[in-house]
């Protein structure tokens, strides 16, 4: 019975996916999408390999391999900016035996994205908290890809929303001090617009849509400032299981909403 169900799904899903794609109005496509790639570790535990591997590293590798597909989907949907949360700054406190392979996977993933020559890659986050070798890899990819047309890809690594806001305010204060402003003048300059100019994503539009996989229905600190007026879409699938169909469903849900921007 399960075999026949799989056969039926394999026949129906492509038809449904094509129909859904054709029904979408790409004039309603979000310009900037943020994605929390969640569920890699749980996916690995629940889907052991033929050799019984359920390690976190395996889950992260499988999840990393899906990112290229996501970018392909973004291109065909005319999305212009994609922000991927690959690692939080809190995750930097994980045990070394888990963290070190993850950092290597992230470095390899960003290198692979950059090697395509298709997208501009911008690392965002507390770069100073990362190992120097990884910092160097990220800096090299960012420099090499700068100015490439196509989807602009922010890779959030060592990222935390509260830290980003704190860093933005610190940067604003430092700028004021460099220009000889008094404390009162600096305080007057602390406005919404000025803080936005000092965020990691400065110069880019705020996300229209934020997607989180794995069934968790919270942001966990992702783009706290920028997502004030974003729409959210929570998908039950773990990130390694996230399909083009799931992405199209998220776009459909977004297009069906009436954005009020807090009004």
Q: Your description of this structure?
A:
This protein has 263 residues and is an alpha/beta fold. It has a single domain (2-159, 205-256), classed as Decaprenyl diphosphate synthase-like (Undecaprenyl pyrophosphate synthetase, 3-Layer(aba) Sandwich), CATH 3.40.1180. The protein has ten helices and six strands. A six-stranded parallel beta sheet has the order 3-4-2-1-5-6, sandwiched between helices. The chain starts with a helix and ends in a 7-residue tail after the last helix. The mean pLDDT is 94.
What are the key terms here?
6 strands, single chain, Undecaprenyl pyrophosphate synthetase, six-stranded parallel beta sheet, alpha/beta, 48% helix, 263 residues, 10 helices, globular
Show the helix and strand layout.
Elements: H1 2-23, E1 32-36, H2 40-46, H3 56-65, H4 67-76, E2 81-88, H5 96-115, E3 120-124, H6 132-145, E4 152-159, H7 161-178, H8 183-189, H9 192-196, E5 209-212, E6 231-234, H10 244-256
Parallel strand pairs: 1-2, 1-5, 2-4, 3-4, 5-6
Helix pairs in contact: 1-10, 2-3, 3-5, 5-6, 7-8
Assign the CATH class.
Alpha Beta
Assigned CATH architecture? 3-Layer(aba) Sandwich
Outline the biggest β-sheet. 6 strands, parallel
Alpha-carbon distance between the termini? 51 Å
The CATH topology turns out to be Undecaprenyl pyrophosphate synthetase
Which structural class matches the secondary elements?
Answer: alpha/beta
How confident is the prediction overall: mean pLDDT?
Answer: 94
Strand order of the largest sheet: 3-4-2-1-5-6
Please tell me how large the radius of gyration is.
20 Å
Separate helix tally? 10
Approximately what portion of the residues adopt beta-strand conformation? Answer: 5-15%
> What is the overall silhouette?
globular
Would you report the number of β strands?
Answer: 6
Report the order of strands and helices. HEHHHEHEHEHHHEEH
Q: What's the number of domains?
A: 1
- Helix residue percentage: 40-55%
């Amino acid at each position: 019975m399960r075999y026949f169900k799989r056969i039926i799904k394999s026949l129906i899903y492509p038809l449904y996916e094509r129909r859904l794609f054709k029904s979408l109005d790409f004039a309603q496509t979000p310009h900037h999408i943020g994605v929390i790639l969640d569920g890699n570790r749980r996916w690995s535990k629940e889907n052991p390999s033929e050799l019984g591997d359920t390690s976190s590293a395996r889950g992260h590798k499988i999840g990393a391999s899906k990112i290229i597909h996501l970018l392909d989907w973004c291109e065909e949907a005319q999305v212009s900016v994609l922000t991927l949360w690959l690692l939080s700054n809190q995750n930097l406190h994980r045990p070394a035996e888990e963290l070190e392979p993850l950092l290597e996977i992230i470095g390899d993933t960003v290198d692979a994205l950059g090697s395509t020559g298709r997208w501009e890659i911008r690392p965002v986050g507390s770069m100073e908290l990362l190992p120097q070798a990884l910092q160097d890899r990220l800096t090299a990819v960012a420099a090499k890809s700068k100015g490439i047309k196509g989807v602009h890809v922010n890779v959030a690594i060592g990222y935390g929303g509260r830290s980003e806001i704190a860093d933005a305010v610190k940067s604003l204060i430092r700028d004021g001090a460099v220009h000889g402003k008094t404390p009162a003048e600096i305080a007057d300059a602390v406005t919404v617009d000025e803080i936005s100019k000092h965020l990691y994503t400065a110069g880019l539009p705020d996300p229209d849509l934020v997607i989180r996989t794995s069934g968790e229905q919270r942001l966990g600190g992702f783009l706290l400032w920028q997502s004030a007026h974003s729409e959210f879409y929570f998908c039950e699938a773990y990130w390694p299981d996230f399909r083009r169909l799931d992405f199209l469903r998220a776009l459909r849900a977004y297009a069906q909403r009436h954005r009020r921007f807090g009004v």
